[in-house]
Design goal:
The protein is 9% helix and 41% strand. It is mainly β. It has one domain: Nucleic acid-binding proteins (OB fold (Dihydrolipoamide Acetyltransferase, E2P), Beta Barrel), CATH 2.40.50. A five-stranded mixed barrel has the order 1-2-3-5-4. The chain has a two-stranded antiparallel sheet with strand order 7-8. Strand 7 and strand 8 form a beta hairpin. One of its GO terms (biological process) is response to ionizing radiation. This is OB domain-containing protein. It comes from Guillardia theta (strain CCMP2712) (Cryptophyte). Keywords: DNA-binding. GO terms for molecular function: DNA binding.
């Protein structure tokens, strides 16, 4: 995708479809296996960048809303253009467990739009109880996941 064209797309300034048409989720309610996720969040931090076998670039970020913090991964130009402080609307995303940690993705059918920057309420509890980005998950089959008990060293169910 042409970077200049993409930049116009991601820095949208108005809603393109009515909010009432979508089911909006808070980050605290999202778990691995969820599909067609529509949510609004602020980018807190770009953690690292990795590559895939197919040659794509994956940008690992930490995001938050007023209920929780969690990990997200954005591919190629999506991740390159998003910066800490950006307020992002994701439509059509999905959640999966990457290295047993809940991670939000835009995916091929998802869409992200930058709605603004910095002015967005988010949670930041001192005890870290709002930080689901470190929560470990284990598969129970059929794309169903449950949280691992804290301090558990058991490996995930195959």
């Amino acid at each position: 995708m042409d970077k200049a064209l993409f930049q116009k797309y991601i820095y949208a300034t108005s809603w393109k479809e009515p909010i009432a048409d979508k089911q909006w989720k808070k980050l605290a309610t999202i778990k691995p296996g969820d599909k067609i996720i529509n949510t609004l969040f602020i980018v807190l931090e770009k953690v690292k960048t990795t590559g895939t076998k197919e040659g794509n670039t994956v940008h690992h970020i930490v995001i938050a809303d007023n209920t929780a913090k969690m990990n997200a991964s954005l591919f190629d130009a999506y991740g390159e253009l998003v910066q800490p402080g950006d307020i992002i609307r994701l439509t059509g995303g999905f959640c999966s467990a990457y290295q047993h940690v809940s991670t939000l993705y835009a995916g091929k059918l998802g869409k992200i739009e930058r709605l603004g920057e910095f002015c967005f309420p988010f949670t930041d509890k001192q005890d870290g109880s709002d930080n689901i980005s470190k929560m470990q998950w284990q598969s129970i089959g059929n794309d169903q996941w449950i949280p691992k008990p804290p301090g558990s060293s058991q490996s995930p169910v195959p």
